[in-house]
Amino acid sequence: MTDIVAFQQRLEKAGYIAEPSLAATLLLFTELKRPLLLEGDAGVGKTEVAKALAQSFGAPLIRLQCYEGLDANAAVYEWNYQRQLLAIKIDEGEGRSSADKERHIFSESFLLKRPLLEAITQPQPPVLLIDEIDRADEEFEAYLLEVLSDFQISIPELGTIKASSIPYVVLTSNATRELSDALRRRCLYYYVDYPSLDKERRIIHTHLPQVGERLAGQVVAFMHALRGMDLRKKPGVSETLDWVAALLRVNVKKLDDDPALLMQTLVCLLKTREDRDAITPDVMQRLAANAQ
Amino acid sequence: MSARQAQAPPASQLDPLVERIMEFLALLRRQGFEVGVREGLDALRIAERCTLLERERLRWGLRSLLCGNADEWKRFDQLFDAYWLPQSRKTSQVQPAAVPKQGGLGTGGAGSGGDIAGADRAQTGDASDAAQEGTRGGASWQESTAQTDFRLLNDPREVRAIENLAERLARRMRRRIQRRQRLARYGRRIHLRRTIRASLRYGGTPIDLVYQRRVRVLPRLVMLLDVSRSMNLYSYFFLRFARGMLGAFDDAHAFIYHTRLIPVSEVLRERDADKVKEKLGVIALGWAGGTRIGESVQAFNQHYASRLLNSRSIVVIMSDGFDTGPATLLAEELRRVRRRARKIVWLNPLLGRAGYEPLAAGMQAALPLIDVFAPAHNLDTLAALEKQLVNL
Lengths: 292, 392
Prior knowledge:
The complex is a heterodimer of chains A (292) and B (392). Chain A has helices at 2-13, 20-32, 46-57, 72-75, 81-91, 98-105, 115-120, 138-150, 181-186, 197-207, 213-228, 237-249, 259-265, 273-278, 281-290; strands at residues 36-39, 61-65, 77-79, 111-113, 127-131, 152-155, 159-162, 168-173, 188-191. In chain A, strand 6 (152-155) and strand 7 form a beta hairpin. In chain A, the strands form 3 sheets. A 5-stranded parallel β-sheet of chain A has the order 2-5-8-1-9. In chain A, strands 3-4 form a two-stranded antiparallel sheet. In chain A, strands 6-7 form a two-stranded antiparallel ribbon. Chain A is built from 15 helices and 9 strands. Chain B has helices at residues 2-6, 11-30, 37-49, 55-66, 70-84, 86-92, 113-124, 127-132, 140-147, 151-154, 156-186, 192-199, 232-248, 265-269, 273-282, 293-303, 305-308, 327-340, 361-366, 379-390; strands at residues 220-226, 252-257, 261-263, 313-318, 343-348, 372-375. Chain B has a 6-stranded mixed β-sheet with strand order 3-2-1-4-5-6, sandwiched between helices. The longest helix of chain B has 31 residues, at 156-186. Chain B is globular.
């Protein structure tokens, strides 16, 4: 257990508060070198895990944001066509053989590395964050699986590039699409839930140390009650931090001070019209009064 | 604690632990977890790192290794406790005295065999076993299986006919929808104007080809199946139908509800019919009880709707509309579903009966919110629905 606690502290230094179970998983992740799949609602801090890992390892963070229609060009590599065309024009007068020319314009200096290629050609193992993998389509997922199992990428014109270092791969998913079993099997899995009262309070203190103990406690209790309500978009941790920053800005010392002012600050938390309608001043006051 | 941890477990103690872990993995495998050889090896590596007292550490490690989705994640702790903490199980459930006293992971070495078998049996809730040896203890889940009448699910000939028909129907519907998608794919051509525009960057050489986007037309199916007592005659029929649909549609999701809402897509996707039965046995608690449709739809809205519902989702509710909860709640929640989903289909098995009028309060409240309200008590009525469903 001592190593788990030590790892927790390392993460905390990097600005991330982790439960023991998450720390244990992350420790395992560094030992087994399997990719880690993080799932959970939007705003629970999945991306932050990768950032904190990179920082605590002192490793570079390479991020690949997935989106629908993401293809190999955007994820792996692309040739720098402009430079190639330019090089062809410059070479026109010279008497080099065409095979020579071809080798030249398809050499590594004309290759634009995209995140996946970049990640496996680092001298030091980086943290590769593949964000929102569920947004990419299945073909890309299958391709990714291949890269993650072999850690090599073949480029037809150039040959196969083997990994110089195996990156720490963190995938995140909002579960908008069911991921393939093959991918799930390759990965360690962790379900990131909304933080507990205590954890969220510590997060607030880490990011905004100037917050009073009382306000932090109230905010955290308020947030928990709010997430328990039937909202269309539940506020995440970053919303909490935004809100606390806003409360500090307008000098609110405790939540039950000034309902009208508090109501105005709720724009930080409620992001759809339905949710705004659901939290009437009465509801908010009740939540604030209960949040002691 | 830390002083004791520092000592590595002696080799003689480790071997039974390995055995116990392998047995635990076998239990998870029967529960539908994907546990391959690689996972087994990694699980042992995790166990090696844990001293005998670090049960939580073992839990966290194995949980991350062996779970693949949120559903498994939520089930894992229960299974882990049931296997590694037999005593706590015993206190919470009626348990025969025959099971030897067991001290969790700490004493996992000697004499654990009988207990493991007990926990294992209880977990898998094997229905046929329960039927043969109804008096065997150690299985509160088994009892619920026995109460639930799964004979219908197992009646061979009729069932096979129904299953085949349901699957064929689902496949036919799928084909129709797919054809549309294929047409769209043919329409996936180069967008000339954009391509020429993009070629300007390269001095007029069209290097970046711009394609026209393919239109996704396959709808997402979300099925809510009523398995309360009043639906007893039809729930198996609907379950089989749902199973066919899950197999035929890539993007389909099924839930059952009675007084609670339970996701069953994973269970129904299981290829082996016996295993489906087995797993349904585990979740059969409360099967064929009262209905709270409103609350169940509310639970759906709270936990799943944001993920599952979008403008191409079709929500299919299979229920007779007898609700023990307030009808206003059902109407309110259906309104929410409607706002997010494309269409709501309500299949009512009673509608086919002569002289039936949808007078149940729940049904009355729901009617104005439903796009397709149709009878479905046998395959003919379902087949008749095909056109309506395909054109949704």
